[in-house]
Amino acid sequence: MPAYGKEPTLAWRLVKNGLLALFGLLMIYPLIWLFFSSFKTNADLFGSLGLLPKTFVWDAYGKGWAGTGQYSYAVFFTNTLLMVVPTVVFTVISSAVVAYGFARFRFPLQGPLFALMISTLMLPHAVIIIPRYLIFRDMGWLDSYLPFIVPAVFACYPFFIFMMVQFFRGLPRELDESAVVDGCNPLTILTRILLPLCKPALFSAAIFQFIWTWNDFFNSLIFINSVKKYTVSLALRMTIDSTGGTVEWNQIMAMSVLAVLPPVLIFFFFQRYFVEGIATTGIKG
Fold first, then answer.
1. In whole angstroms, how far apart are CA 119 and each of 48, 113, 115, 116, 212?
2. Is 252:239 a contact under the CB 8 Å cutoff?
């Protein structure tokens, strides 16, 4: 290693960059293998450890997109977007409003309420899934996307609230005081001053919620029953189960590639805000 305070040598930079490149390749190798597997036959997929297929199969994406029944993957991707987009939007909005209240206002039982909200992070999902199912069943929300969207409206995700509270607390209160002098009300302070400064935290919450909801299989399996409302994760499982004979794994791999593509693109396009939102807690006064 180079001595402290000295410029790293060319050899050291080459070694460091080479190790980082190797580590990055190891991290993305499963995605590379998944992509090339979508062009393999079943015999090639299970009979060879090679990355490149011996014989390329070019129709896996077309046949896989057509689905196995009366619904194609166009329906399943549309369903997923109809569930994910409102959930992400309402999560970001509601979490920002609740975090603003905890970070900037003083009200009775603020401390116990904040502690109670944080304590819900410790609840295992298996503990609350049955009560949630019974509540949503009695409200007639089963086989719909309301069990995902409505909790997002009411800020039922304490992880994002806590993250934004920490970010708001890092913003100097002098900003609020200056805005009050200029005649701004609390809503204007939030929307015109604080939220533009909190873009890293907002993008981080949106990316997290998008990936978690897009990849969610268990909750979708519990609350969605109709095939016409299936999400992509359920459709992939249905494709495996519905084949009466040999499973065409290259088609499943092809649809899996398309399924992981939106979260990957979202992450890489907005990773600058994501990294900044995780690494910082706001402006230091």
1. 49, 10, 6, 5, 21
2. yes
Domain at 68-279: CATH code: 1.10.3720.10
Say which DSSP state 142 is in: T
Please list, in sequence order, all residues whose beta carbon lies within 8 angstroms of the beta carbon of residue 161, skipping any fewer than 6 positions away: 95, 98, 99, 102, 117, 155
Would you kindly state where each structural domain of the chain is located, as residue ranges?
A: 10-62, 68-279
How far is Cα 1 from Cα 4, in angstroms, rounded to an integer?
Answer: 9
Report yes or no: 282 and 168 within 8 Å, Cβ to Cβ: yes
CA 102 to chain centre: 25
Q: Which of 194, 64, 203, 80 is nearest to 148 (CA)?
A: 80
pLDDT digits (tens, 9 = 90+) for 185-219: 989 999 888 988 888 889 889 999 999 999 999 99
User: 164 Cβ partners below 8 Å, 6+ apart?
Assistant: 95, 96, 99, 100, 103, 198, 201, 202, 205
Q: Tokens at residue 186, please?
A: 């609390």
The pTM (predicted TM-score) of the whole model is 0.86
Task: Give pLDDT tens digits for 167-193.
Answer: 898 888 888 888 888 888 989 999 888
